[in-house]
Amino acid sequence: MPSPGQLDYQSDRLVISGDWTLPNYARLKRAVETALASGKTVDESPDLTSIGALDTAGASLLADLLGSGKLIELTHETSTLAPERRDLLRLVADAMAAPDEETPHRGSALIAFLGRVGQQVEHYWAQQRLLMGFTGQILGTMVTIAPTPWRWRMTSLVAHIHQTGLNALPIVALLTFLVGAVVAFLGATILDDFGATIYTVNLVAFSFLREFGVLLAAILLAGRTASAFTAQLGSMKANEEIDALRTFGLSPIELLVIPRVLAMVISLPILTFVGMISGILGGSLVCVMVLDISAPQIINILETKVRVVHFLVGLGKAPVFAFVIAVIGCLEGFKASGSAESVGEHTTSAVVQSIFMVILLDSIAAIFFMEMGW
User: Fold this and answer.
1) Quick one: three-class SS letters along 39-55?
2) What is the value of pTM for the model shown?
3) CA distance 128 to 160
4) Rounded distance between C-alpha atoms, residue 32 and residue 193, angstroms
5) In 329-365, which positions are buried (b, 16+ CB within 10 angstroms) versus exposed (e)?
6) What is the spatial distance between Cα 134 and Cα 219, in angstroms, rounded to a whole number?
7) pLDDT tens digits, residue range 259-291?
8) CA distances in angstroms from 85 to 49, 59, 188, listed in the order given
9) Bridge partners of residue 9, in order along the sequence
């Protein structure tokens, strides 16, 4: 016959015995409340060895009686309890102790800041690993389809060149022209103090051939084209068009990504060249109209003082920047989920990452070329 659970005090020691189960819950609850009200439950080592049947209802009453922490300690100290009862008591005590542990703990502000920095670094490293893997997949697909011209998507390639290159020519030319004029004004303002305004032509030519031409064109494409790639591919993924391509046995990398990447690699050097010419024309216009430097003088300086290596350095960075921008834009498009909010977030991320990577790579290239003496 099962014995009902009860609380006894033997020599000032609390002895818990009987069945602590749901049928006895109402009576046991009153006994626990009476014991708590009397204050006799403070005991260093209550005796649990006489417990009979036990379920979660009885275990919760024991946790109320002894406290979750004390009950967990007793499950470790009392070796005579059956393993299944010990595990049940520990599980219920842990669950009932959880709300107390949810109290917010205000730690050091420095530790919290370092924790956030660590999370951002870990997130950035995960993004770079994913980017490297996606880049390898693109390069592998390019090598695979290179010997098979019938798999080249020439129509898609030409359409994307028109979109990324031809349509971007006016804004690139206008922006670099205006920046060239601004650089010439700034250079003339400083050089006039030394009576060396003639070197404004050199300043404009060096800056646009080596840095500004390719950098401005790349940043414009990062904001204009990388975002377009992400939005296009993200919308296709939201509409399950990419899944449909895979269902038909077609590779999304081959069909969607490679034409966009090649179009960028072809378009950006052309836009860079246009940006260089427009920037130099903008600076030259300021030199002619404000500094009284004649056009033949400007042409003579460009021919004799500006080496071709500066042009090659600037133009050589364009395909690298184009490849990185296109890969980031396509990758973020594939990472977008089915919602419009996700497409917007990844479009923003594509622009930010592209501009960041372009400036980072340009800084590394500038240091490298300076050490090489180019």
Assistant:
1) CCCCCCCCEEEEEEEEC
2) 0.67
3) 26
4) 92
5) bbbbbbbbeeeeeebebbbebbbebbbebbeeebeeb
6) 22
7) 999 999 999 999 999 999 999 999 999 888 888
8) 11, 9, 87
9) 14
> Which run of H or of E encompasses 10?
strand 6-10
Evaluate whether 294 touches 345 at the Cβ level (below 8 Å): no
Give the chain's domains with CATH numbers: 6-101 (3.30.750), 125-372 (no CATH)
**How many Å apart are CA 313 and CA 211, to the nearest integer?**
9
- For 96-149, write each residue's pLDDT tens digit: 765 544 445 566 788 888 888 988 888 888 888 888 888 898 898 888 888 888
Neighbours of 19 (CB within 10 A): 19
- Residues with Cβ within 8 Å of 353's Cβ and at least 6 positions away in sequence, in order, are 127, 328, 332
DSSP state of 211: I
Measured CA distances, 364 to 15, 39, 118, 121, 356 (Å): 75, 73, 24, 20, 12
CB atoms within 10 A of CB 46: 20
Half-sphere exposure of 354 (CA within 13 A, CB side): 36
Measure the CA–CA gap between 252 and 155, rounded to whole angstroms: 16
Cα separation, 178 vs 172, in Å, equals: 10
The conformation of residue 307, written as its DSSP 8-state character, comes to -
Give the other-Cβ count within 10 Å of 120's Cβ: 10
Query: How far is CA 270 from its chain centroid?
Result: 31
Query: What does the alpha-carbon distance between residue 344 and residue 336 come to, in Å, rounded to a whole number?
Result: 9
First to last CA, the chain: 97
For residues 274 and 268, what is the distance between their CA atoms, to the nearest angstrom? 10
Contacts of 134 (CB under 8 A, 6+ apart): 327, 330, 331, 334
